[in-house]
Write a structure and sequence with these properties.
The chain has 209 residues and is α/β, with parallel strands linked by helices. The protein has one domain: Rossmann fold. Helices cover 30% and strands 25% of the residues. The protein contains six helices and eight strands; from the N terminus they run H-H-E-H-E-H-E-E-H-E-H-E-E-E. Strands 1, 2, 3, 4, 5, 6, 7 and 8 form an eight-stranded mixed β-sheet that branches. Helix 2 packs across helix 3.
Length: 209
């Protein structure tokens, strides 16, 4: 087992704490994260040539699923956790894994066709969520889309002891709408191990309203 050295950070580590990182992939697979990743990728309707961004990629499982489903996409995956990114890099050399924060994306306006996020937004407070959604709106091209899956209610205990912020589907939809997206009705699904999750599709209008 790889030794994990605790480091100072201003973000939530992928597994909640650095020492649990070696268990992260096994635990999330047990709880059903792969099912959610596959469903999110299908909903994103990826096709060859699209430029795709993932925020909060952790150890890279969603990014790898997206790339396998459509090898012709150009995929950039961001996370602030360098230890998680080390593991992500080992899973694929075809994905551009980078260290970065969703609240301060370094990319130019309108350069991505899709953005993906799985089980990350609930870790952000209201201000950080507002900034993240605004940044996603900025970097997505007109007509592009953001696809998110996140918890509404947790079905397991593999989380921080000081519970993150779980928002209702209407609350998240409003945050996306307030940023300028046209938001489809969320798909809310209950899974025994995973909990209640919601899938969101937010489209950036093709023309100024």
């Amino acid at each position: 087992m790889t030794k994990v050295t605790p480091i100072e950070h201003d973000y939530l580590p992928a597994a909640g704490r650095d020492a649990l990182l070696p268990l992260y992939d096994a635990m999330t697979r047990l709880y059903g994260a792969r099912w959610a990743h596959r469903r999110l990728v299908r909903r994103a309707d990826l096709s060859s040539g699209l430029r795709v961004l993932e925020i909060g990629c952790g150890t890279g499982n969603l990014a790898v699923a997206a790339k396998r489903s459509q090898p012709g996409i150009a995929l950039t995956a961001l996370d602030p956790d360098p230890l998680a990114l080390q593991r992500a890099h080992r899973k694929s050399v075809e994905i551009d894994f980078e260290r970065g924060y969703s609240q301060e994306l370094r990319f130019a306006d309108g350069v991505f066709d899709r953005a993906l996020s799985a089980f990350m937004v609930h870790h952000l407070d209201d201000e950080s969520t507002k900034n993240t959604v605004a940044e996603l709106f900025r970097v997505i091209r007109p007509g592009g889309a953001v696809h998110i899956v996140d918890f509404v209610e947790l079905g397991h205990t593999f989380a921080r002891r000081d519970q993150p912020t779980f928002r209702s589907a209407p609350e998240v939809s409003k945050q996306l709408t307030d940023a300028g997206f046209a938001v489809e009705k969320p798909e809310v699904v209950r899974r025994r191990m995973l909990g209640t999750v919601a899938f969101y599709a937010a489209i950036k209008p093709a023309t100024d309203q």
